[in-house]
Amino acid sequence: xxxxxxxxxxxxxxxxxxxxxxxxxxxxxxxxxxxxxxxxxxxxxxxxxxxxxxxxxxxxxxxxxxxxxxxxxxxxxxxxxxxxxxxxxxxxxxxxxxxxxxxxxxxxxxxxxxxxxxxxxxxxxxxxxxxxxxxxxxxxxxxxxxxxxxxxxxxxxxxxxxxxxxxxxxxxxxxxxxxxxxxxxxxxxxxxxxxxxxxxxxxxxxxxxxxxxxxxxxxxxxxxxxxxxxxxxxxxxxxxxxxxxxxxxxxxxxxxxxxxxxxxxxxxxxxxxxxxxxxxxxxxxxxxxxxxxxxxxxxxxxxxxxxxxxxxxxxxxxxxxxxxxxxxxxxxxxxxxxxxxxxxxxxxxxxxxxxxxxxxxxxxxxxxxxxxxxxxxxxxxxxxxxxxxxxxxxxxxxxxxxxxxxxxxxxxxxxxxxxxxxxxxxxxxxxxxxxxxxxxxxxxxxxxxxxxxxxxxxxxxxxxxxxxxxxxxxxxxxxxxxxxxxxxxxxxxxxxxxxxxxxxxxxxxxxxxxxxxxxxxxxxxxxxxxxxxxxxxxxxxxxxxxxxxxxxxxxxxxxxxxxxxxxxxxxxxxxxxxxxxxxxxxxxxxxxxxxxxxxxxxxxxxxxxxxxxxxxxxxxxxxxxxxxxxxxxxxxxxxxxxxxxxxxxxxxxxxxxxxxxxxxxxxxxxxxxxxxxxxxxxxxxxxxxxxxxxxxxxxxxxxxxxxxxxxxxxxxxxxxxxxxxxxxxxxxxxxxxxxxxxxxxxxxxxxxxxxxxxxxxxxxxxxxxxxxxxxxxxxxxxxxxxxxxxxxxxxxxxxxxxxxxxxxxxxxxxxxxxxxxxxxxxxxxxxxxxxxxxxxxxxxxxxxxxxxxxxxxxxxxxxxxxxxxxxxxxxxxxxxxxxxxxxxxxxxxxxxxxxxxxxxxxxxxxxxxxxxxxxxxxxxxxxxxxxxxxxxxxxxxxxxxxxxxxxxx
Amino acid sequence: xxxxxxxxxxxxxxxxxxxxxxxxxxxxxxxxxxxxxxxxxxxxxxxxxxxxxxxxxxxxxxxxxxxxxxxxxxxxxxxxxxxxxxxxxxxxxxxxxxxxxxxxxxxxxxxxxxxxxxxxxxxxxxxxxxxxxxxxxxxxxxxxxxxxxxxxxxxxxxxxxxxxxxxxxxxxxxxxxxxxxxxxxxxxxxxxxxxxxxxxxxxxxxxxxxxxxxxxxxxxxxxxxxxxxxxxxxxxxxxxxxxxxxxxxxxxxxxxxxxxxxxxxxxxxxxxxxxxxxxxxxxxxxxxxxxxxxxxxxxxxxxxxxxxxxxxxxxxxxxxxxxx
Lengths: 953, 324
Hints:
The complex is a heterodimer. By secondary structure, chain A is α+β, with helices and mostly antiparallel strands. Chain A is 51% helix and 16% strand. Mean pLDDT of chain A is 83; it is low at 1-15 and 505-510. Chain B folds into 2 domains: 28-231, Rossmann fold; 283-320, no CATH class. Chain B is built from 11 helices and 13 strands. The longest helix of chain B is centred in the middle third of the chain and has 18 residues, at 202-219. The radius of gyration of chain B is 23 Å and the shape is globular. The two termini of chain B are 27 Å apart. The interface between A and B is large, with 46 and 52 residues.
């Protein structure tokens, strides 16, 4: 044996510097190679968590972007696009493009638009409308007044086809008026639709003299032009009237007819030749010409990142030019509904974000708890190493520094990978939240794993070396913390119920989500979890006592082990409870939204299909009969009108909605659906006789809880009158309901039999405003075709389409996907918590089981012991977690606005998704069973002497 | 107790001896050391007024039955545990009044520890050389100095060829020799070993003890070995026996010549008298003379005589009465 030459030479203490610290940390990090499975587990959990929380904001961004584009795409053409207008007299250009100045003015307008708006504009067109003319009114002529507007639209040539005649051209022709003055009147050739020509009484190639329409804004004081003659040289038709190009403006195709009862005003539009623009300018002098530049936006250019700027710029544009539109004709005007669309979209996005934030914060809490749990597991596994290191002079700072470095080494690449996966898999605009949350997960990993190591770095070395379960002493700090969490949760629930999820805090006013209120469900979960941790050992002890009385050794031992577990080993119960609660919460949200969407679609339409007249012409075409359309089961006429209520013969009462429907047919249509009216016999069998609707024979009706009689709530059997067609009809309240399908719940309503109303008001017998159709969803196209075939236009509303409109909207679908992912991820974390829980107590269990095996415990009993030990926390977590998940929604339901996801104005009841809850429970039981079986097998395989380490201490 | 001795004479004799502090100049001093553990609601007195003095460079064995307090003593000496009362000074460090930082420095520089289990001695993911280097790294020793020291120490324990092997590739004896090198890494004044050969066969144990003896003799390192193995304790020149948390006896061994003229180890066992004058009589003595409760002491000029209290036998009825 060689000798060491004396003591080591004195070394400088300055060696204890940063470099020395780093060397120590680097040396300790070599454990990672040795503990690859452990390192891989940590990295895997962090990677998954990093991915989930890096992907979540991108997903929300993608959903928000799709929602924005969906809102733009589905808006009417005049809502989503922009029209700039100005009156003036732009000079005609020479050569083949006399309207070059108009186009150029459009380009200048385009250039003057805010950059954000310019970036979404795809192309523009212009419309030139000359001053409006009117046909001279013959003395003592008929009661109709006919007007003509000369128009040209850029690019129109490719969107019309000539039915007969020819397209207009410049002409120098004149006509002589038959009425003084007899000066030659210049002729402008036009092409128009046959319907317009017919309505205006114009024939092909028969010029008619026109006079300026003094009602036109373009004719100002002293701006009156001379007379003009119009010559229709061709009949045209539009190729696709629904093309965005037409901007929902049908004036070239269809004449507009207005009848005020005395005079019929007919407005028609004729297309003039662009080459005739110079002539038109000359012939309409000095009247102004109206120029409209239409800027068409491309929905796919709208992004979440440019939304804020766009919204602000559009508001500014509205403020600058919106009011000028109706001022002087020479002022520049702007017309768009983008501001309203943006506002509506922003509101829905805020609602989506606020509701999703509940699930995200819950998941984040669970994820962090799982990382902490894994950290605790790792620290527990290294207990001996820590004891050794501290025994050899390792300081707490060195141990914790090595742990922090390890967390960085494992966590940062893991979250980077997670972030990269999120970048690749979720195509969306970049958002700072994505890398921010990923970085946050890495930091949290460091903090949590260092926190989990802290007790091992500071605890008494002797205590560190003990394997046995340590019973926790009462800790005032822990108790104070728990009380603090409970108080925070209770206060949060109170505030949340009072203010709503968005709240009225400064944050919420700024368009965000109040983080405290959004965290209330998690706080509540934490509070319940902490209280459960405190209390759940009590029933377990009772069970253990019961097991001891039954001489059931295995059950007794298992339960005793559970009841003696320390705080650290109880934490998995908290994590499991939280993750079960998040899963159940998400599943209930999903179910509530799904049921709400179906319910709302039925409530909004009132039947599978409903036909309404266009606004302005309330009554439906009397000839409209859809009962013969294939698939139609039944149809029910309905009259939906306002009526004044009189009580006890006194007028005026309040205004109410009278909904009279063919009750029997309506009942047949909606039987078995969510809006089955369940009419009573009195409504199904309307009264008959000549005195129907009189005091002696009132019409039975369903009245709303919101009484039309002001503060007086109507009771069953009470009579009241309604003014219908200048006649008072008496009704009797047969039933009082909160709401009725397709009727707003905020205003009073009266529902009665249409046949009875017709019988009471004979002159009313043909009138109906809507038609309810019972037919399968597939009958939609046939019904649509039948309605289009009618002369007077009607609107077909389909329940399935309403449902699809809400269900398929990206923001709604995104929220639903969010909750679905929430269920899945929380379930995954639950499974992980079960496995870590088993692993965390593995060493102590292995020693106890080994000892019991030496006393003769059989393999089956080992399995039973582990199962008895694992079952109580899992059962408690499942039961309390489920109750918590449901309870949270019930508690905060008043604060949640589901209408963004289900449709407007219809209250949505919280619906528990029991199949999913049961499935989650079963899944967890399977995971636990598998984990218990694996733990049992591993325990069986372990060497008894190795585990017991004979002669150890 | 008979009073045949002249107390005045004894007092005068004692006054002639110069009073010095207990254990002054010793490497390890335990003076009336007490350690009380609290397990659940119970207090367990592991050490109840233990006295111990170990000089620098001495190699001492601590023996005792299970639960006698020997491992507790070792943990206190190693700075892993804190005594409840008394005084314990190791290499000038007062173990009762150390800050956390002092304790860290103490563990790094003053004591080295060798445990029975490899898992408590060596990190499994480091090679033998790395394990030896680790305490130096933790102490912040410069790199070059560390490397030199690792080489020296591995050579000292005869494991230079196995320097790059991880613990799982070393035999039990090799692992314990590496553990000794690790314990010596920061040149401690005191080496503490808790059953260092508990898992080794006799031949390997002898090798390990040879190393420990060499360290004690050549480097002047004080070595304290806890064991309950008589074969191990026989290798020590001094063995302190602990019973019920107190030092009960000491056995000193020296080479001597037997009556037959052979060189052999001569062991003498001494009872330990603590500073309060307490002494534990060996069990076999007590049993042989059926000593119980009270004994009669007689002070003789050069010893103290201990006799059973026969009065108890003579009047058994009277003695037992109060117990009824």
